[in-house]
């Protein structure tokens, strides 16, 4: 059996490969997400900029953060930050790098473990392409395979009503997230001063699971994914939760990616990544792309 590497090294490997494949020093706008994996992305971008500036004049790139922590990361590395609402009109972010809590075979993502899902979705849906960077623990066939719950940002006044609505949809004991898992510390507040609800659901289905019996989920044959028996398909659950009054954003990133939106004639980005890079415990990087088999790269 080969040796294994630690999680941070796995994240760093994924970040280096993602940046090598998708960061162009000549672009104007780059989205920067939140979390420890993105620290490695920023470091890889710095290295790329240092290499390019040795040959040409330093590029003028604006980095659009997805929250307070993300902005601090950008500033700490001496990069130029730009608030999302300061983007010029009708301008798309060239590329956005962000992590995920879990990614399925269709590149749907769960995000929000760090309570930044609303701004993360704003940046992703205004980027030509969103690139996900994570470690091997986030690489799954279906969402909610290992990750325990779905993060949902809600207006505080509506939190109790949203909890009740989620229970009616089949969530088992949804809870308002609290600081440091201590009730007395009070609820976690987002950058928008809202609450986060963590809502457990059964493993989420893909359209292929509904269209025909799937060997991974033989018990789901004939299920429509509309909540019967607590079983939901990704898009159907996302739409249902987003329709609850008081919900600002749902931690499901689904639908088209930015390139697919452009091909369809759209003028915005998409929620899903065009590719996801996973640092594996053997030192390799697995790349998951839309409509393709996973590719394992030896570094």
In short:
This protein has helices spanning 7-22, 36-53, 68-76, 117-124, 159-168, 207-211, 234-242, 258-263, and strands at 29-32, 62-65, 95-98, 102-103, 109-110, 130-135, 150-154, 175-176, 195-199, 247-250, 252-253, 275-279, 285-289, 295-297. The chain has 299 residues and is α/β, with parallel strands linked by helices.
Number of strands: 14
Distance between the termini: 18 Å
Shape: globular
What is the CA-based Rg, rounded?
Answer: 19 Å
In sequence order, what are the helices and strands, one letter per element?
HEHEHEEEHEEHEEHHEEHEEE
Question: How would you describe the oligomerization state of the chains in this entry?
Answer: single chain
The largest sheet is:
7 strands, mixed
Give start-end ranges of low-pLDDT stretches: none
Quote the beta fraction.
15-25%
As a percent range, the share of helical residues equals 25-40%
Question: How are the strands of the largest sheet arranged?
Answer: 2-1-3-6-12-13-14
Mean pLDDT across residues: 92
Number of helical elements: 8
Which structural category fits the helices and strands? alpha/beta
């Amino acid at each position: 059996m080969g040796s294994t590497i630690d999680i941070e090294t796995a994240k760093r490997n994924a970040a280096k490969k993602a940046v090598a494949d998708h960061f162009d020093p000549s672009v104007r706008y780059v989205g920067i997400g939140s979390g420890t994996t993105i620290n490695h992305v920023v470091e890889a971008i710095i290295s790329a900029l240092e290499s390019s500036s040795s040959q040409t004049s330093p590029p003028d790139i604006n980095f659009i953060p997805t929250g307070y922590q993300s902005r601090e990361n950008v500033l700490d590395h001496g990069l130029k930050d730009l608030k999302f609402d300061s983007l010029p009109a009708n301008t798309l972010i060239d590329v956005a790098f962000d992590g995920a809590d879990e990614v399925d075979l269709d590149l749907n993502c769960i995000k929000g473990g760090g309570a930044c899902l609303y701004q993360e979705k704003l940046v992703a849906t205004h980027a030509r392409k969103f690139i996900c960077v994570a470690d091997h623990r986030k690489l799954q066939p279906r969402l909610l395979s290992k990750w325990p719950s779905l993060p949902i940002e809600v207006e505080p006044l509506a939190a109790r009503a949203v909890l009740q609505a989620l229970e009616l949809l089949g969530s088992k004991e949804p809870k308002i997230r609290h600081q440091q898992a201590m009730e007395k510390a009070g609820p976690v507040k987002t950058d928008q001063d809202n609450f986060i609800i963590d809502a457990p659901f059964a493993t989420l289905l893909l359209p292929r699971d509904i269209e025909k019996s799937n060997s991974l989920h033989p018990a789901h044959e004939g299920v429509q994914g509309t909540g019967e028996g607590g079983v939901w398909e990704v898009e159907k659950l996302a739409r249902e939760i987003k329709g609850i009054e008081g919900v600002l954003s749902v931690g499901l990133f689904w639908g088209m990616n930015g390139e697919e939106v452009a091909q369809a004639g759209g003028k915005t980005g998409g929620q899903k990544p065009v590719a996801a890079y996973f640092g594996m415990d053997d030192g390799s990087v697995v790349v998951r792309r839309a409509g393709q088999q996973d590719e394992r790269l030896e570094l």
